Amino acid sequence: MRIIIDGQRMPVQARASKDILVTLKSMSKILGWGIFYDAAKEVVYINSKSSSPPSILPDRQTAAEPIESTRLLGKTVCVDPGHGGSDSGAVGATGTLEKDNTLAISLLLRDRLEKNGATVFLTRDSDKDVSYPGSTADEELGARVDIANESGADIFISVHNDAFTSPAAAGTTTFHYGDAESIRLAGQVQKCLVSELGTRDRGSRFASFYVIRYTDMPAILVEVAFISNPEEEMLLASVDGRCKAADSIFQGVVKYFKV
Ligand SMILES: [Zn+2]
After folding, report:
1. What is the mean pLDDT of residues 216-233?
2. Cα–Cα distance for residue pair 26/138, rounded to 1 Å
3. How far does residue 17's CA lie from ligand 1's centre (Å)?
4. 124, 161, 158: which is closest to 236 by C-alpha?
5. What spacing in Å lies between the alpha carbon of 212 and ligand 1's midpoint?
């Protein structure tokens, strides 16, 4: 595992472990440093100049967003934008791609969470495969689970769009893997999503999806709406719809943590 502070590689060689990451993260929190762990490359990036994630996230270098609150301080959230890179996910009738919608919503969600004090890990922050282009589905999902588990996050949220052969299918569903905390998280997020988006409530339900089954923390997979439904395709592709989706997931997280 390499450690890079302000672009300088530290002359230490450590085996990647949750212990080291947790130590570095709590140290960074105390010192107000930004920290980001790239699990695929086994590199820890630390930015001592600001508390926002460091320069490998170019769109955020100048981020001077006002803080909304500190109510999520000390909470770590791993957000997983479904699909990406060589895997577009489902495709809408007008050609919109699930991978673009999930990334946009996840980036907005990260902003809301960070503005309220949370530490956020994204499994991807651009249009790319998390493991490598052309990887098998298992390798790709495994890479996402690894990032979540190594991040030591308190909760995991995978963002997806639903799709079905009939364009009439519509609505929002949030999946969990059956443990009490995941059920509670799924319920809060689902409630906020349907009330804000005005979509049909398909409920929070059990499912055995890889990313919620193998993650160590309370974990949910959100199917925000149906990209195969013409109205919901527009909702998912619109700035307004994406903001509402991100806001509702954020509100659900706040309710889950009771902060
Ligand atoms: Zn999907």
Report:
1. 97
2. 31
3. 30
4. 161
5. 13
In angstroms, the CA 24 to CA 29 distance is 9
* Interval between CA 45 and ligand 1 midpoint (Å): 29
Question: Cα(120)–Cα(168) distance, rounded to whole angstroms?
Answer: 35
**Nearest one of 219, 67, 63 to 153, comparing CA atoms:** 219
Q: What's domain 65-257's architecture?
A: 3-Layer(aba) Sandwich (3.40)
DSSP, res 59: G
Among 62-66, 245-249, 253-257, the least confident range: 62-66
Ligand 1 centroid, distance to 157 Cα (angstroms): 13
* Domain limits, the chain: 1-62, 65-257
CA of 22 to the centre of ligand 1 (A): 30
End-to-end CA distance of the chain: 35
Instruction: Give me the percent of the chain exceeding a pLDDT of 90.
Output: 72
Within 10 Å of residue 208's Cβ, how many Cβ atoms? Answer: 9
Q: Could you tell me if 235 and 243 are in contact, meaning their C-beta atoms sit under 8 angstroms apart?
A: no
User: Could you tell me the distance, in angstroms and rounded to a whole number, from the CA of residue 86 to the centre of ligand 1?
Assistant: 13
Q: Cα–chain-centroid distance for residue 168?
A: 28
Closest CA to 248 of 185, 197, 174, 198: 197
Cα of 87 to ligand 1 centre, how many Å?
10
Global pTM reads: 0.76
